[in-house]
Structure formats: C-alpha cells, structure tokens
C-alpha cells in the first residue's frame, strides 16, 4: 500500500467534514427565529387583540427589513389563547413544544399568564409579558415591560383628590387576580392619602350585567369611582351602563386602553385613565411608529394602545438581548434581557428593575371625539420592588 494513501484519504475526509459542518452552520444561520404570540383572538381580550397582532407584525417586518437578528429572519407564530387560563396552557404548550419558538412575546389576562408560566418554565422559553397587570408575578423566564400599580394608580387618585376634592371612593372590579390585585393596592393608596373607601364590588371575569353594582354606586354617592375590569369587553359594558344610568361622577378606569375607549362612543367621554402609552405622545419616535402603522395597515389600522405598543417594543428588546448574547440560547437571552434597552414610542425602556421597567406615565381624559387629552406626565416612575429574588 502506498504510504501516501492514508494521509491523502484523511485529508479528503477532513475537507469533506469541514464542508459539511460549514453547510450545516449556514443552514442554521438561515433558519428563521420563531417568536410566539399567544393572544386572546376570542374571549374578553378580542377587543384589543387585533391591535396587538398588528404591532407584532410591524415589528417583525421592520426587523426583517433591516437584516433580521444575527443574520436570521424573524417568523411569527400567533396562537389564540381564548383569553382564558385553559386556553393559555394549550397555546403556550403549542408554542413551546410543537412550534419550538425561541421566545414568547404576549399580553394576556392575569389568569392566563399565571396558567402559562409553568409551561414556560418546563420549556425554558424566554417570555416578555407586555400587559399592564397587578404586579409581583415572578418567574426566572419572564420579564415585564407593562406598568404595575405602583406606577399607575397614584396619578388617578391624586388628581381626583386635588382637582375634584374627592374624599370618598367606590371601587369596581372583575373578580380575578387583576381586578382584586389592582383594587387592593388602590384601596391602600386611597387610605394612605387620607381618603375613604365606601364601596367595593366585583363581577366574574366574563360578567357583563352591572345593574346591581350601578345601583349600589348610586346609593353610596361616592365622590369618585375607580374600576379595574378584565380585558376590553367588561370595560365597555360597565362604561355604557354607568352612562345609561345617568351617573356623572369622576370615573377613573385602571384597565382601559385607548383602542377600547374609542369603541365605547360617548360612553367613554370624560373618563380618566393613567397610561404609559397614548397615541398623542409628541415625540419623533412615536410619530415614526404611528406613520409606519398607517402605511402598513391603512384603513384596517386598529388604534395603537397601552397593550399594543409594549408588544411592538418587546420585539426590539428581544432583538437587543439576542444581539448582546450573541445567541438565541435561552439562558443567555434571559440574562441579557435585564441589561438592554430600547428607545421607542414611550421613550427609553429597560426591564432592569427586578425584571420590570421604570416608565413615564401619562394621565389622560377621553374627549368627545374619542381622542385622549394628556393632562399630566410623570417621568420615569419606578415599578417598586417586584421580583428582587429571581436570579
């Protein structure tokens, strides 16, 4: 046997393996990064879901047009969670274990989020929760860029106390984690500020007949009303029934978004809301966001709102985290999510305060044409201690 035969064959094999490895890496680099969006296309959140989907689609289009992330395109997997806990478990299971997404970016009801978190933990999937909520939901795999009570309640209560001389308050909510959590914080804040609670009523999460509650509000004669109801539909039914009953007291809604307010017609006129995002924010970044949405969706555009804008922003936070990590590896991305920021329509946002984000909050009031007039702005409001022990 020729003494050069083995080295020659070894060299050919090495070159072949090198080519195969290179091809495999190129194929992997070309594979899209799949992002899951679980959202209530049906159920209580169906009022707000279309705007959330549109914001997701815009973010993916923009990122892909700019070259993707680490040279890879993004691909959306949108699944209906039916605005429910059972639906969320199914949706997240599909995304984590069948679609094998690299992350989930989603706003949901608190009940749906709580049901989905064990699935996220089993799948070790980074999750950016983009909804405002009652606070203190903590998980190694979750970061939050929506507001919490420490950021949202004070503007409404303080405004009613200072400008409407409100001393007595009536609270109304949906009977689940969000409604109970928000109003428990609100009650403590009212009492801390010297106010008095004279009524507190709840309906089931899918409740729509507020007749008895409205009668109790009328009988109690509070100086102001504050509500925290689930999703879009309960907000609409409560506001319309209050209007129909002729109640005109100052009304602050802790769960309303701008898009839902516009669907209410004159029932929403005069309603107060505290939000981190409103379409009237006068910045170059917000104008760019609004113009891009109008260009992409035209007459089909749904009103951008407090639930859809954080959804858009979260894709860019994920992009920054992957680029910082240099990988879509879950452990590396989770670490990086607490170290990156994005300057978007709401301003600069970083989820660096115990997995939550300091946010500029705006107190707004719904006008007769459905637009929101910004009355006051509170810069960089701290979310407080939310998840200090999660590593």
UniProtKB/TrEMBL annotation:
The keyword Oxidoreductase does not apply. InterPro entries: Leu-bd (IPR028081), Peripla_BP_I (IPR028082). Residues 32-370 form the Leucine-binding protein domain. It comes from the Bacteria. Residues 1-29 form the signal peptide. The keyword Repressor does not apply. It holds the Pfam family Peripla_BP_6. Keywords: Signal. Belongs to the leucine-binding protein family. This is Aliphatic amidase expression-regulating protein. It comes from Herbaspirillum frisingense.
């Amino acid at each position: 046997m020729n003494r050069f035969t083995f080295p020659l064959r070894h060299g050919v094999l090495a070159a072949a393996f090198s080519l195969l490895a290179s091809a495999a890496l190129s194929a992997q680099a070309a594979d899209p990064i799949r992002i899951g969006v679980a959202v209530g296309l049906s159920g209580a959140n169906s009022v707000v879901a279309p705007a959330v989907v549109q914001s997701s689609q815009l973010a993916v289009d923009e990122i892909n047009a700019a070259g993707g992330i680490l040279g890879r395109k993004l691909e959306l997997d949108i699944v209906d969670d039916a605005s429910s806990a059972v639906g969320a478990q199914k949706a997240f299971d599909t995304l984590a274990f069948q679609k094998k997404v690299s992350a989930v970016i989603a706003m949901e009801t608190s009940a749906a989020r709580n049901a989905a978190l064990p699935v996220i933990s089993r799948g070790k999937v980074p999750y950016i929760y983009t909804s405002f909520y009652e606070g203190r939901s903590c998980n190694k795999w979750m970061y939050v860029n929506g507001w919490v009570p420490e950021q949202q309640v004070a503007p409404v209560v303080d405004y009613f106390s200072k400008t409407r001389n409100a001393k007595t308050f009536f609270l109304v909510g949906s009977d689940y984690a969000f409604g109970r959590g928000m109003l428990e914080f609100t009650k403590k804040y009212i009492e801390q500020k010297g106010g008095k609670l004279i009524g507190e009523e709840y309906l089931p999460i899918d409740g729509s007949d507020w007749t008895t509650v409205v009668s109790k509000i009328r009988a109690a004669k509070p100086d102001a009303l504050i509500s925290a109801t689930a999703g879009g539909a309960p907000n609409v039914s409560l506001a319309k029934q209050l209007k129909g009953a002729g109640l005109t007291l100052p009304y602050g809604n802790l769960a309303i978004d701008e898009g839902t307010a516009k669907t209410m017609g004159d029932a929403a006129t005069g309603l107060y809301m505290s939000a981190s995002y409103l379409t009237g924010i006068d910045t170059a970044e917000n104008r760019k966001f609004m113009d891009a949405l109008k260009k992409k969706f035209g007459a089909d555009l749904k009103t951008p709102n407090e639930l859809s804008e954080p959804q858009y922003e979260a894709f860019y936070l994920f992009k920054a985290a992957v680029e910082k990590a240099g990988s879509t590896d879950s452990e590396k991305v989770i670490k990086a999510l607490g170290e990156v920021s994005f300057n978007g329509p709401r301003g600069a946002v970083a989820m660096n305060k115990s997995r939550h984000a300091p946010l500029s909050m705006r107190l707004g009031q719904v006008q007769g044409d459905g637009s929101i007039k910004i009355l006051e702005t509170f810069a960089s409001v701290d979310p407080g201690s939310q998840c200090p022990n999660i590593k």
